[in-house]
Amino acid sequence: MNEAKRQLVRSWLTKAQRDLASARVLAASSPPLLDTVIYHCQQAAEKAVKGFLVFCDQEFERIHDVEVLIQAAVLTQQGFRLG
Fold first, then answer.
1. Mind listing the pLDDT tens digit for each residue in 8-26?
2. In the chain, what are the domain boundaries?
């Protein structure tokens, strides 16, 4: 993997990790801010899948639909299949 690709994959995964960390903090607050927790969880999932797609050299649309992104990931890795 070349350095530019490595940095792009790392960038997506770092952003996903930060969204998940934010969700954990918000879930532990009193009261928990569950609507915002859900948003950050969705963002973490979206960014993690985008990182995977970049790693696999799969192009994807600029969308925020995790299901569509997962369908693209299934083409490379059957483990992404839903249900």
1. 999 999 999 999 999 999 9
2. 3-80
